[in-house]
Amino acid sequence: MEHIKKLAAIRESMAERGIDAYIIPSADPHISEYLPDRFKAIAWTSGFTGSAGTLVITQDFAGLWTDARYFVQGREQLVDTGFELVKLKIQHKAEYVEWLSEKFSKGNTVAFDGNLTSLLLANTIKEKLEPLGICVKGSEDLLDAAWEDRPLLPTDAAYLIHPDTTGQDAASKIAAIRHKMEKLHTQAHIISSLDDLAWTLNIRGNDVPCNPVVLGFLIIELERATLFIDNTKLSAADQAELNAAGVDIKPYDSVHPAVQQLAVEQILIDPKRTCYAVYESIPAHVTVLEDTNPSTFLKAVKNPTEVSFSRETMLKDGVALTRFFKWLEENVSKGQLTEISISDQLRTFRAAQDGFVDISFDTIAGYLEHGALPHYKATPKSDATLKPSGLLLVDSGGQYTSGTTDITRVVSLGNITAEEKEDYTIVLKGLIEGSMAVFPQGTRGYQIDAITRRPIWETLRNYGHGTGHGVGFFLNVHEGPQVLNPSNVDVAIEEGMISSIEPGLYREGSYGIRIENLVLSRMLSHNEFGDFMDFETLTICYIATDLVNTALLDQKHIDWLNQYNDWTYNQLAPLLTEEEAAWLKEKTKAI
Fold first, then answer.
1. Which of 21, 336, 394, 479 shows a CA-CA span of 20 to 30 A to 124?
2. Quick one: 270 and 337 in the same domain?
3. How many domains is the chain partitioned into structurally?
4. Are 41 and 68 contained in the same domain?
5. Per-residue pLDDT reduced to its tens digit, 405-437
6. How far is residue 247's CA from residue 175's CA, in Å, rounded to a whole number?
7. Residues of the chain with pLDDT > 90: what percent?
8. Which part of the chain is the Peptidase M24 C-terminal domain (predicted)?
9. Are residues 504 and 394 in the same domain?
10. What is the pLDDT of residues 333-350, one digit of tens each?
């Protein structure tokens, strides 16, 4: 009944303000994927805790629009809340806007909070609804007054990391952004997205769980830059270092007045990653250039220092994972392990490694049918006890001062069926095809996605999530601009990008399979036909072979698997105890 009462309070506010439909996106003023507690509005309103979704509330309907990753979770969490699950046909598309255009007409009012809505989304709403005579209001916060004991903004300390780790200092990164600004004939650029800010200034924090970022805005002009942040977060030494790099520091909440006072002719903002409220603060005489943040492209291509540290990080993570899977195998028969307890133990193994800071996202430890929920997170209510039977999916990652990891493995706990082996082998085949891909320079992510899916499609199977995403360097585990999914995203895979390859198959109510490695895109060859690229696999953790049906693999797939597991053993064995190395040697035996 708690969520029903909240829904009633929102509807009452809507009626008082003449609002017929209210939109609540999953976002904060920085359009983040993962949110500080203060901005977890969807969870507070509806009880849905997934990282992607949108609530739309009218007087006679309340719905959660989300994608296939969350269909089961959404259906379960929305029971008795007053909200209904609406399944998106296309991931990330604002399909509820079309629904609103059909439900309402001239004279009706649709509203949202511009602090939680990207400029791109606001424009989508306005361009669809306003021509129909529907009034769109973009500055309506209906939650704050009703949200008792709403969490405050986080106050954890932030800190600068040394260019010896990042391979580039803040001054040179700002200079690279200014070079792009000059090419675009713009005199100011607002950076709202937290990972772009963190990369540009070599600053890290703890304001968002699992993401080492700090809340702030950055305005770069041609002569100076200004960081808007709670300055109590930074030490005097760090503030002095930023000042020396040409960065002034002002209070976090003074960004809107500062934007209003900009004396420039043209300003660059990223419509996907800038909230509508910031856009509304831009003076009317200033021309707004909407384009992707230059830093988004710059940080996606890792420099040699970042690549070198990332390889070291994979070794640390591989040691932790080897110890975890050995411990799991030795203890599962005792009947005391649960999804939550093994997630905690995996964190403990990672935390023992030098430079560990945090996990890079909430660990997905899905046993049996929970593995079929791509973004499952165990709760005390759902926490399943492991038995020596069935499949266990573990998707996890770590944040280290030397890099970010993301890996998924599926292991057998016993009594595996022929169907499970077949599904596992088909997913593995997809991973191998994607990992072995050779492609011309300029290839887009959707082409790699198709290469990876081809052996899965051939069996008339498919999965409802993307094949991969970019990964940051001691930054967000989900990073753009590249993405490996079916969407026609016009971003090439460039040399130096780190991406995931993670095909899967999910049988609702039974089990799920996903196998994931991180890869580095690299230049392979140049000839009369052009430049060609391939991937270097970075992740170092054995891939289980007891689930493989070799009859379904070609010899090239078997060779790749054997070579990968042999390489994994040779990389990790010197860092393990004799007993651990012997265990891993058995796991990596050629098939």
1. 479
2. no
3. 3
4. yes
5. 999 999 999 999 999 999 999 999 999 999 999
6. 12
7. 92
8. 532-591
9. yes
10. 999 999 999 999 999 999
